[in-house]
Amino acid sequence: MTVIHSLSQKRQEKQIKYELNILKELSLQKIKEKIKEHFIFFFQSRILYQAIVEETCIDHTIEAFLLGAHFSRFGFYGESIEMVHARCSNEIDELTRSLYDYIICWGKSTNDDLVDESIHLTCEIFVHFWWREGYRIGKQRHKLKLI
Questions:
Q1: How many angstroms separate the CA atoms of 142 and 145, rounded?
Q2: Residue 139 lies in a domain
Q3: How many domains does the structure of the chain reveal?
Q4: Cα–Cα dist 36/38, whole Å
Q5: 35, part of any domain
Q6: pTM to 2 decimals?
């Protein structure tokens, strides 16, 4: 007797396998270095607590990285990076907003719009950096036929 698998089950298994393979390219050490690099000013001025921010940033890094890797197939098939970015701009904005909201919620309250704006800009740059990294790695894997 054979086991019958549904198409959605097969797609989910393939997606999980792809994500596991692409995440092998990501190092926790590099993530932590980039967190410190992007948020160093806020850690030094004690506006943000490093331990709390680090955990959330790691989660958002993985999400942005996988999003970039997933959409890299469009770049492989000829679209420019700007067009691919426009395709997933809603998801990128949602990741940025989510990271910003979490950091503002757990950070020290300053009631300063300039600080809040600079935190938002830093979150945006951080998420975009990891999206580009995922895009680059994903496109590279497509070229090497590792998909």
A1: 5
A2: yes
A3: 1
A4: 6
A5: yes
A6: 0.86
